[in-house]
Specification:
The structure holds two protein chains of two kinds.
Chain A lengths: L4 E7 L2 E8 L1 E6 L2 E5 L6 E5 L2 E6 L7 E5 L2 E6 L2 E6 L2 E3 L5 H16 L7 H24 L1
Parallel strand pairs in A: 1-9
Antiparallel strand pairs in A: 1-2, 3-4, 3-6, 5-8, 6-7, 7-10, 8-9
Helix pairs in contact in A: 1-2
Chain B lengths: L1 H57 L16 E7 L9 H18 L3 E7 L1 H10 L2 E6 L8 H16 L5 E9 L5 E9 L17 E2 L3 H76 L1
Parallel strand pairs in B: 1-2, 1-4, 2-3
Antiparallel strand pairs in B: 4-5
The chains are: A alpha+beta, B alpha/beta.
Chain lengths: 140, 288
């Protein structure tokens, strides 16, 4: 029996996941990190992307899309406080593409009163959503 | 028949009151269900947030955020969550009574009190109690928005940062179940330590990515927002539950009064008929 780490993912809309995993991958602001059991305590903000949990024993990865938030790591416990979290399965490709196009438009004509930072953030979010969908599709 | 007519009017007026209270009961019941769903949805987040904050309060970072430093308490800031409307039983009164007791104790200990008030009822009450009202927000509606709360909460946090307030406490009604709502006062800032203090007692610290100040600022801001939002949502569910129960008992009481009045009315009517008959009979006897 290999070591596992307890993972909780909650967003303001509800509890998304609670269970054990052998490995957790999360997109923190500095880049993607992998967390194994007995990881040193850590807190960090998340950027838009997907949190993946490897339940071990060859079972399928659990994927969650988060639009930002925070992660807290204790040696045997990971808590993800997501701003908005969605099970990657529920993500809609058409909606994500539309959001991406809108964000790119906003970036292209910056003369509009929308500010640059907001547009960039939205684009990053849309791209991360799309990436999560792509990966899910390839996995199938 | 003078008495009978009056009683009849009274009965019909109570009947219309009963209709109103039973309609309010049903409205409150359906709103309560929605409010409860909202509360259940955001509860895990707020709970986890409290846990994480509990851990953070136990850590020993080289950067001490002002929120993590306890200082001598000269002035306490209360964030008080209440309902906008009345007719919800003793919900607000219970909370206020608890608050007043605490305020008296704190005042005797020589501490000043200031408030951030959420909801009309708290506004009306604490104006009379006295103390400095720093911020207020009313008319949040059935679907409270986080955005509406950020402003008033920030006023309190700024006051804390500038040293005008040395401790912030949150007062609201905790939803236990439909019948029970528990008035609760808890400390928000400086950060309370978590429950699992024992296992984390040794000297340790987090790794902060990218750096402690940024991470803690983001974390603490989210913490305040989520905890206050949760309190407001929870209080909303409490309000609906309390109103439902209060209106149910009002409807039942109206039913009882109607029954009693009906009895009195019947007696009065019977007495009037008896009197009339005896008058006729005695009249007839006098003639013959």
């Amino acid at each position: 029996m290999s070591m596992t780490i307890h993972v909780d993912i909650v967003s303001a809309e509800g509890r998304l996941f609670s269970g054990q995993g052998e490995m957790v991958y999360a997109p923190v602001v500095m880049g993607e990190i992998g967390i194994a059991p007995r990881h040193a305590p850590l807190v960090s903000p998340l950027k838009p992307g997907e949190v993946r949990i490897d339940p071990g024993q060859g079972r399928e990865m659990e994927c969650f899309y988060v639009s930002g938030g925070l992660i807290e790591v204790q040696p045997f416990k990971v808590t993800v406080l997501a701003d908005t979290g969605v099970r990657a399965v529920d993500l809609d490709r058409a909606v994500a593409l539309e959001a991406k196009r809108r964000a790119e438009d906003a970036l292209a004509n910056q003369t509009a009163d929308m500010d640059l930072a907001k547009a960039q953030a939205e684009l990053a979010e849309a791209v991360a959503q799309l990436r999560a969908i792509e990966r899910l599709r390839k996995g199938k | 028949m003078a008495g009978a007519k009056e009683i009849r009017t009274k009965i019909s007026s109570i009947k219309s009151t009963q209709k109103i209270t039973s309609a309010m009961e049903m409205v409150a019941a359906s709103k309560m269900r929605r409010a409860q769903d909202r509360m259940d949805a955001s509860r895990p987040y707020a709970e986890k947030m409290r846990q994480v904050i509990g851990h953070v309060a136990l850590a020993n970072p080289e950067y001490r955020h002002p929120f993590m430093q306890a200082r001598e308490v000269k002035c306490i800031g209360y964030i008080i969550v209440s309902s906008d409307r009345g007719l919800c039983g003793g919900l607000n009164t219970n909370l206020f009574r608890k608050m007043v007791r605490e305020i008296h104790a704190e005042r005797e200990a020589g501490r000043e009190i200031s408030y951030c008030l959420v909801g009309n009822k708290a506004l009306g009450f604490f104006r009379r109690v006295g103390g400095n009202v720093r911020a207020q927000v009313t008319h949040l509606g059935d679907r409270p928005e986080l955005e509406a709360l950020i402003g008033p909460v920030k006023v309190m946090l700024d006051a804390y940062m500038e040293g005008e307030v040395d401790e912030i406490r949150l007062a609201y009604n905790l939803f236990v179940n439909t019948m029970t709502q528990k008035p609760t006062i808890e400390k928000l800032v400086p950060l309370p330590e978590g429950d699992d203090a024992e296992e984390l007692k040794h000297h340790w610290d987090y790794i902060y990515e990218p750096d402690a100040k940024q991470v803690l600022d983001a974390l603490l801001q989210r913490y305040m927002e989520s905890v206050v939002y949760q309190a407001v949502v929870e209080n909303g569910a409490c309000e609906m539950a309390a109103r439902m129960v209060a209106m149910k008992s009002a409807t039942d009481n109206a039913g009882n009064i109607i029954d009693e009045l009906q009895l009195v009315y019947n007696k009065a009517r019977q007495a009037a008929i008896t009197q009339e008959i005896s008058e006729i009979v005695s009249g007839a006897a006098a003639v013959s």
